[in-house]
């Protein structure tokens, strides 16, 4: 019996009941009421709902195509810079860093995210052009492309990679909606048939080590628990310091070294034991980390208790409540911050401690577009170079992390600084970006103009400026080749350890192909 037939029969029964009890309401009213109930339970397809779903599908494809076009454009910029500056791959700040900086500034994103885009753009151009074409066409999502790029990253043979790319480009468009886990399994199955040593395998549980910190809005920070924010960042800085005491050949990732450093910290060790396996490990010459210092900026009114303004840890988004600032002030070392006003430039290249403190507290972070490295870990850069007459003055000094300091010096960026600390950047492509001091919102008095500085004299051109650039021991390509080789060795060893003894009889039938719907 259909729902409509059932509804008609029910209406006749109700009409019969109304006829025995009291005058029945008009049939049209009863029908309208039951039609409403029916539609609520069984929504009908209407032109309006169909149009909305069409819009949803269309916008999703537009989003996929836009992600693909973004990677393609980044890839073209990559090729352009490599043609112009390919010999700089051995520089400490290489073409990868320079391209990531341009993309980060243009898209107003972090350099880490820009670096991720560059990584996937190279994967699309070099390893997965067919799958990438599906992304550009809007047939697959960006997250699907990311998963495929990662799961195929250990394939080293170009012909095998091309075959896997072709097979995936055909199958991924026909696969139904999948969870990420099912997609991973499907991609791994194709990779395993083509190159079993290239399958991404789960490592032992002890390898999944990580110590993570999430800043909260109430002065507390998540550290697989909750700590006072200043304590949490002190632990964070100590873990980074201990993780840096090993040599470059230590096989662990930074996250794993940080996790291991928790044990070293609990044991009171001065350094982390290196696992390079070399009898004469160079890590023994690494200096012992200095004591950790956390820098908190707060108004005097907060210390006096006259205003409940929050404080801020330099280089983080964490706000410190006024009551916690008062508690910290009882035991912390207090250093008053003096606004230089219209003070004259200082003599010499290195600023005084008072001037350096002011610039770092005004900036809070690196002043390059998209960078949030703490100012306490950054260089103090003369916007107008000191060698060209640039003054050691608050209006000519800003915080730049070492990477972006090198990018400004060697990769064609230009900058102009205003007396209130605003920096106007011009990229090698001619685009303009503006960054304001990090204190502009919390401590606006620090952005009070500090006076004009004298214009530069004629620049002193060096004959070989590139000779000053620090060099890498190994290029990114060499590091990647080493990483892939190590992963493949691990996979080969794991497979051989699990391989049963070979029978003397003839081998059985070949393994079946993909299960449906693959």
Written overview of the protein:
- The chain is mostly helical and 518 residues long.
- It is 45% helix and 7% strand.
- It contains 16 helices and eleven strands.
- The protein has helices at residues 3-21, 27-41, 47-85, 95-107, 111-127, 129-137, 142-151, 158-171, 180-194, 229-243, 254-266, 300-304, 322-329, 353-363, 402-410, 476-498; strands at 214-215, 220-222, 226-228, 296-297, 311-313, 319-320, 379-382, 397-400, 414-417, 423-426, 432-435.
- A three-stranded antiparallel sheet has the order 1-2-3. Strands 4-5-6 form a three-stranded antiparallel sheet.
- Residues 203-209 and 506-518 have low confidence and may be disordered.
Question: Characteristics of this structure?
Answer:
single chain; mainly alpha; 3-stranded antiparallel sheet; 16 helices; 45% helix
Q: In a nutshell, what does this entry contain?
A:
The protein has 518 residues and is mainly alpha-helical. It has helices at residues 3-21, 27-41, 47-85, 95-107, 111-127, 129-137, 142-151, 158-171, 180-194, 229-243, 254-266, 300-304, 322-329, 353-363, 402-410, 476-498, and strands spanning 214-215, 220-222, 226-228, 296-297, 311-313, 319-320, 379-382, 397-400, 414-417, 423-426, 432-435.
